[in-house]
Amino acid sequence: MSNIYDQQLDRTAANFVALSPVSFVERSAEVFGDLPAVVHGARRYSWAQTRERSARLAAALRALGVARGSTVSVMLPNTPEMVEAHYAVPALNAVLNTLNTRLDASLLAWQMNHCEAAVLITDREFAPLIAVALRELRERFGRTLVVIDVADSEYTGPGERLGEHEYEALLAAHAPLPQLPGPADEWDAIAVSYTSGTTGDPKGVVTHHRGAYLNAVCNATTWTLPQFPRYLWTLPMFHCNGWCFPWTVAMQGGTHICLRRVEAQAIFDAMREHGADHYCAAPIVHNLLLAAPESVRAGITQTVRGMVAGAAPPAAMIEGMARIGIHITHVYGLTEVYGPAAVAVQRPSWAAEDLSEQTRLNARQGVRYPLQEGMTVRHPQTLAEVPADGQTLGEIMFRGNIVMKGYLKNPAATQKAFDGGWFHTGDLAVMEPDRYVKIKDRSKDVIISGGENISSIEVEDALYRHPAVMACAVVAKPDAKWGETPLAYVELKPGASTDAATLIAHCKTLLAGYKLPREIRFEDIPKTSTGKIQKFQLRERAKSASAIDPS
Q: What is the chain's mean pLDDT, rounded?
C-alpha cells in the first residue's frame, strides 16, 4: 500500500542520475580545467585537455561500432592513453578489459576471446607479443579485432604497427563528444578483469559503475586523500583498474604522474621532480624502495603516503617504510571487490604505542571500507561468525555494493562465490577483540604439521625480518613423519649473502620450534606482474598436494 511519500515524488532527470565515475572527469574538466591532470615525460595535459582527449577517443570508438556491452581490450603500460581509456570506454557504456602486460600470447588470446573483445588498443612495445596473440585469436577462435596502435612519445624502442588505426591520428580525426554520457543503469558492467592466476584458474570478474563510483570515493575517504593529490602510477592500471584510482584522482582534481616502468630510481626521481605525494603498490615494490641506496632516496621534502595491498605485507616492510619517512596505509581486497575494500584504520591511540606494536596493528587487514556494507570472518560451511577472540580461524567474507556482479560466463563459480549471501574470499583469518581482521593464510596455504596448524605468512614474516631477504614464500613440503613441514623459497637482496642455517637460526628467535622452516631453497620465486607470489607454482615444485593425497 502506497503512502504519502510515494505519491507524485518520482525519479526525474533533475533528481536522479545513475552513479558512474565518469561524472568525476566531467566535473574536474569543468571546475579545474586549467589545472594539471597528466604528466608523462615531456607531455603535460590539463584536465580540460584530458577530458577533450577522452571525449575524442569515445567519439572514435563509437564510430568503430563500440556501444553498450561492447568490450574494449587495452594492452598498455601506465601512460596517458591508459588513463583516457578508463574515461572514454565507460562513457560509452562499453566494458573495459585491461590486459596484464606480462601474460603470454596464448592467455591473452584466450582472455580477449572469452570477453568477446571488439577493439584492442595496444602499445607499440608489446607488438611482438600481441602479433602472436592476434594470430592465435584468429586461427584458434576465429575472432578478428579492430586494432589501434599507440606510439608513446616516451618509448623509443622497437615495435611495429599491427592495426589499421594509430591512436593520435584517430583522436585528431574525431571531434570530441559534447558530453561523456555514462550508463543509463548504474548496474551495467564497467570492466572485466581477469584474476591474476595465483590459483592457476583465471576468471573474468565483472564490475559495475555503481561499485566503481563508490570504491573511488572510499579510496579518498579511507586515505584522507586531499584535493589535488600528485598521484604516482607505480601500481599497474591493468590490476583491478588501478584499484579505481584513475577515477579517484579525477574526483579530487589530482595529477596522474605516469611511469612506463617501476624502478626505484624512476620512482624517487618522480617524487623529487614532480612532487609525487601518493602512490599504491604491492609489498614487493615497497621492498624495492626500501632496498634502494640512500643516495637514490635523498632530496624528498614532501610527505609521501604509500598504500600497500596485493599480498599480506611483512611487518618488517611496514616498519622499514616508517623509518625512511613514507607513511603506509594497509588495505586489503581482491579483484572481486574492486581492489581494496578493507583498511587497517589507524586509530589515534596507536600513536602512543612503540613502533613494534604500531607495526603489528598496521599489518592487519582491518575493517570494511565505509561504503562496503559488510565484512566478517565466518565458518566457510556453516556461515556462523567466529568469535572476536583473535584465535578462532574462519574465512573473510564481504557483502555490499563494492562486490562484483559475478564471473563472466561462469554461473557455477559465481554461485559458489556468493554462497549464503556473502562473497567468499578464500582467505583464512581471525577477528581480534577490536574486530579488526588478521589474515592467517590462504585456505590452501595452511601447513598442518603433526596436527598443528602453521601459518605460512607468520613464517614468511619472520624471514622478511632478516636484512638479507628480499622476497620469500613458504609452502608445505610432504614429510613422512609430520605429514607436512614448512619449506621456504628465498630471494636475497642484491649484494647480500647468507645461508640456510643462518636464516633458520634467525627464525628461531621469532617463532616456536615447530613453526621453523625445515628446508630453505635459494631460488627465483614466480610472481604475477602485480607482485603477488604464485604459490601454486611453488606448491607444484614442492609436491605439496602429495602430502594430502599421496595417490
A: 92
